[in-house]
Amino acid sequence: MQKITLITGGSRGIGRATAFYLAEKGHHIGIGYHSNQDQALEVIEIIRRRIGGKAIAIQADIADEKQVVELFQRIDAELGCITGLVNNAGILKPQASIEQLTAHRLNDIFTTNVVGSFLCAREAVKRMSFRHGGHGGSIVNVSSAASRLGSPHEYIDYAASKGAIDTLTIGLSLEVADQGIRVNAVRPGFIYTNMHSDGGEPNRVDRVKNSLPMKRGGQPKEVAQAIA
Ligand code: NAP
Q: Could you tell me where the Basic and acidic residues compositional bias lies (predicted)?
């Protein structure tokens, strides 16, 4: 059966590397992105021309339920019924301690990272599960090592949102195991992507790398391999 995989946050970083890796393995790829249309179009162009694969890019804010529903409807119409979801899109905010956290910031983090991932998982289950006439599939949630480290004085809000992703993974995996759907999580450590610029420290990985067992940060492709 042709594998059809949706990767949220596929325009950059880990999602982009995963799109390339899975396209090379023969998956038809749908990538979701938020605002970087140029980079999203570049990803699908590379898949089409250099890899010879099939790919489409769809703009959708995963924090918005209507946009999530429309994202999946467009994948249905343009690629077919998905067999895989990589719940990868996520955000963090500038480094801060608890005294600086506002409800506005917390709502942004949790709506995107947690609610967005739940909504995408819901739409995937509606298409993959036997009880809805589907043929099974696989969901990979991209969590973070932050969920067990807590990220003190950096972003405990982000870390807590990834804790929720870990619990979603456990609960949903048990809920849909008899529906032919596997649900797993990958918890990357410190990976070279632009996400650290959003946290206000573009060179964060280089700052911490000597404290890591391998004395180096990770590359997006290494995470892509784990996701695959
Ligand atoms: P990144 O380079 O900042 O890319 C984030 C991606 O998510 C982009 O494609 C972005 O789209 C998309 N996105 C952001 N908000 C969105 C929204 N509301 N709706 C739809 N898409 C949205 O991030 P990354 O480092 O590759 O991280 C990918 C995942 O890995 C995240 O879940 C992150 O928490 C996790 N992770 C990363 C690290 C690390 O060290 N980098 C470590 C552990 C876990 P646009 O390009 O359009 O903005």
A: 198-209
- Count of domains forming the chain: 1
Instruction: Report the pLDDT value the prediction gives residue 165, as an integer from 0 to 100.
Output: 98
Ligand 1 centre from 132 Cα, in Å?
A: 30
Half-sphere exposure of residue 154, counting CA atoms within 13 Å on the CB side?
A: 18
pLDDT tens per residue, range 162-178: 999 999 999 999 999 99
Q: Residue whose CA is closest, atom 6 of ligand 1?
A: 9
Residue nearest to atom 17 of ligand 1 (CA): 61
> By the 8 A CB rule, do 3 and 28 touch?
yes
- pTM attached to this predicted model: 0.98
Which residues of the chain have a pLDDT value below 70? none
Ligand 1 centroid from CA 177, angstroms:
27
Q: Output the CA–CA distances (angstroms, integers) from residue 118 to 11, 44, 87, 150, 163, in the order listed.
A: 20, 25, 9, 21, 13
